[in-house]
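Hi team,

Filling in the usual template for the complex we talked about on Friday. All components are listed, including any nucleic acid strands or ligand strings, so the model treats them as one assembly.

SUBMITTER: L.P.
PURPOSE: interface mapping
COMPONENTS: three
RESIDUES: 306
SEQUENCES:
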Amino acid sequence: MGRAPCCEKMGLKKGPWTPEEDQILINYINQFGHGNWRALPKQAGLLRCGKSCRLRWTNYLRPDIKRGNFTQEEEDTIINLHEMLGNRWSAIAARLPGRTDNEIKNVWHTHLKKRLKQYNNGGSTSNENNPKKRQKTATTVAEAAAAKGNDSSKDKNKNNIKKEQDPVNCPNSPAVSSPQESLSSEVSTVTTTSENHSSSNNSNMMSTKMETQIEDEEFSEIDENFWSEVLSADNSSEFQVVASSDQLQAQTDHDYFPSSPLAAATLEPVNNDFGSNILFDNDDTNMDFWYNLFTRAGDLPELPQL
DNA sequence: AAGCATCGCAACCGCATATGG
DNA sequence: TCCATATGCGGTTGCGATGCT
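RESULT (copied from the run log):
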């Protein structure tokens, strides 16, 4: 895939936006919209690349942006969604009106991650090593959030963890994946799998990518009812691997997908790796399986039966 | 009061994907 | 079908603000 050369740097301004530039961008978009970001700066008379304009608009200038501190509710939502979705900030942002992916990402890295880490360090229990026993007490999220209260108002005390660039604190790090320990019993059945793919280790990144397509489509269409449905699913059913759409009904539909990897995978214990079991188990039936899956879900036109 | 350390946020970078010719 | 371009996304960085010694 060819990639557009990142904005011709010749003569283009970088760095913080000035109020004047903001005003120009706002005026232009209010007047003409932003059909073509690439052409926009030129037409608006801005010495910025389109990418920069888009970012400035979506992250800062958009009128529907909610500024200010995140509420407790929002933070809890982020924590829960992150457990389910991993570092898919845009997906998380989609569920938080007025908040941008960038903002959420920042909040996560500067506040929530540390808070969870602190909580996990101080609050690890014997359940930690037993995925099936990992349960978030009813107050876990609240507790984690309460840790915020313990922070200084600016979250700047000596106990703060240094700014970490190391992979250890990347999404795949234990520190981040550890929220498992704070999962609610309801959530854990789903998050165990979705989180595995998103934050367990690098080897799962591929599966993340592949699944992302699926999940994105699904997620955007799945309403809250679905999630309540999923979240309230029987924990003892260890077939939640792809509990992502009732369109699929595949969890236990072994008749429909007699040889599908999913069917096989559903027989696997919950704590198995999502990616390796489902998406990349080197089973040749994968493609057929996914094709069937999409076909059934109506995402692809049905081909004549072979 | 000065210097240093740390935080928080805006912005940038580069990759992946979508789209259109 | 291929290729070039546009867009979206997540990771990372730079720097001003703030706190600490």
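MY TAKE: Chain A has three domains: 19-61, 72-187, 206-232+241-297. The radius of gyration of chain A is 22 Å.

Thanks, L.
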